[in-house]
Amino acid sequence: QWKQLENLYFREKKFAVEVHDPRRISVSRRTFGQSGLVVQTWYANTSLIKSIWVMAISQHQFYLDRKQSKAKIPSARSLDDIAMGLTEMGTPKVSKLVTLEAKNQLIMASNGSLISSGSQDSEVNEEQKKEKIMELKRKEKLLQEKLLQKVEELKKICLREAELTGKMPKEYPLSAGEEPPQVRRRVGTAFKLDDNLLPSEEDPTLQDLESNFIIQQKLVEAAKKLASEPDLCKNVKKKRKQEYADAVKKLQEIENSINEYRIKCGKKPTQKSTLILPGKQ
C-alpha cells in the first residue's frame, strides 16, 4: 500500500522500492538503522528503469493529491462537480509530469529517488537537506578562508626564499594570467663571532671594551656590504652610506676608549681600526 512506501529510487539499471512492513524486521544500509524495511529490486536498461521510476513517482503523487482532496471534498457532491474537480486537479499534473525532470535539479541522468521528487511525504527530508546544504556551505566558506590564509603564507615563504637565492621558487602560487613578482636578492649581512676571536684579558673592563670593538667591527663590515649593493635608488644609497659612516665613527670611538684605558693602566695603545679601515685616522 502507498501508505507503507518509504522510498522509490533508481541507480542506472536498478529500480528499487522500499516498503515499511511492521511484520518483518530487515535492516538496510539505506535505512540508517530503521527496522521493518523491505526492499524490492528490479533490473533493466537505464532508459526503461528511469521511465518506470518517473511513472511510479507520478502515481505516488496522484495518491497523495487524491488523499488530500478527499479530506477537502464535502460529503455530498454532484457527479458534475466531481468530474470538474478531477479535471482541474488532473490538468496541472500532466504539465508537472512533463517538466518533472527539468525543474528538479536533484534528479541526475543516472539516478533518482522519491526523496528528490518533491512529494509531500518528503517535506521533513527537504528541510533536513536544506539545513545540511547550509552547513556544507558554511564549512566551504571556512575552508576557502583557511585556504586563502595558507596561500598568503606560502607567498611570503616563497618571497623570502627568492630574496635569499635570487630566484623565485616554482611553488609560488599564481592566479590565471598573473606574472611572478620581481624580487631583488638580499645582500648577506649575517655574521657569527668565533669564541676563539674574543679576547681573554685579565682586566674585565678591558675585556668588555675589546669585545665591543670586535662586534662593532662586524657591524662595520655589514654596513659596508649594504652600502656597496648595486641597483639602489638615490635615497637608499645615501642613507646606507651614512649608516656606514656612523658605524665607522663608532668603531673609532671604541678604539679611542680602549687606548685611553690602556694608557691609564700603563700599557701601549693599539691601532686596530686604521689597519682594518685604510684612510681612517
From TrEMBL:
<dbReference type="InterPro" id="IPR021774">
    <property type="entry name" value="CUPID"/>
</dbReference>
<dbReference type="GO" id="GO:0005737">
    <property type="term" value="C:cytoplasm"/>
</dbReference>
<dbReference type="InterPro" id="IPR000299">
    <property type="entry name" value="FERM_domain"/>
</dbReference>
<dbReference type="GO" id="GO:0090162">
    <property type="term" value="P:establishment of epithelial cell polarity"/>
</dbReference>
<keyword id="KW-0175">Coiled coil</keyword>
<keyword id="KW-0963">Cytoplasm</keyword>
<protein>
    <submittedName>
        <fullName>FRM4B protein</fullName>
    </submittedName>
</protein>
<dbReference type="InterPro" id="IPR047176">
    <property type="entry name" value="FRMD4A/B"/>
</dbReference>
<dbReference type="InterPro" id="IPR018980">
    <property type="entry name" value="FERM_PH-like_C"/>
</dbReference>
<dbReference type="InterPro" id="IPR011993">
    <property type="entry name" value="PH-like_dom_sf"/>
</dbReference>
<feature type="coiled-coil region">
    <location>
        <begin position="119"/>
        <end position="153"/>
    </location>
</feature>
<dbReference type="GO" id="GO:0005923">
    <property type="term" value="C:bicellular tight junction"/>
</dbReference>
<dbReference type="Pfam" id="PF11819">
    <property type="entry name" value="CUPID"/>
</dbReference>
<dbReference type="Pfam" id="PF09380">
    <property type="entry name" value="FERM_C"/>
</dbReference>
<dbReference type="GO" id="GO:0005912">
    <property type="term" value="C:adherens junction"/>
</dbReference>
<feature type="domain" description="FERM">
    <location>
        <begin position="1"/>
        <end position="67"/>
    </location>
</feature>
<feature type="coiled-coil region">
    <location>
        <begin position="237"/>
        <end position="264"/>
    </location>
</feature>
